[in-house]
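Illustration: DUF2147 domain-containing protein.
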Amino acid sequence: MPYSIIISLFVILTFPAVLYADSNKEVTGLWLSKKKDVAVRLEYCDNENLCGHIAWLSPEANTENPTLCGTKVLWNMRSKKGDPTEWVGGTLYKADENKYYSANLRLTDENTINLRAYIGISMIGKTKRLTRTTESTHPPCHLSAKD
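Result:
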């Protein structure tokens, strides 16, 4: 009898979490950096992988380097074992440093991504938090169609 109560409690307590996880797994969209100076549009490329392009720049960043708009800054991200909340094996271009890094990302909730950039070993890298935004808040900059 106590065994069935434990199983019932487990099912009742985890069911809402399963519903939440299944309904909020979309990683594509517009994502704002922590500094709020750039927004990146994440979308599928090659039907399976994720890519990201600069879609919005703060007025200060746009004045400093207006040619960054449209720059591809993330590519070759693939879903980890079919999990739509974890993406691995990508390349990140940090335009402000003119450097390339390996990258992984994790959708922590429907409005937050943790982007891990590293050289060599992920444990030695840095994690940046991005938050979901909208085009009405961060309208598209004038794209210069770069790859």
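Reading the tokens back as a structure: The first strand starts at residue 29 and ends at 32.
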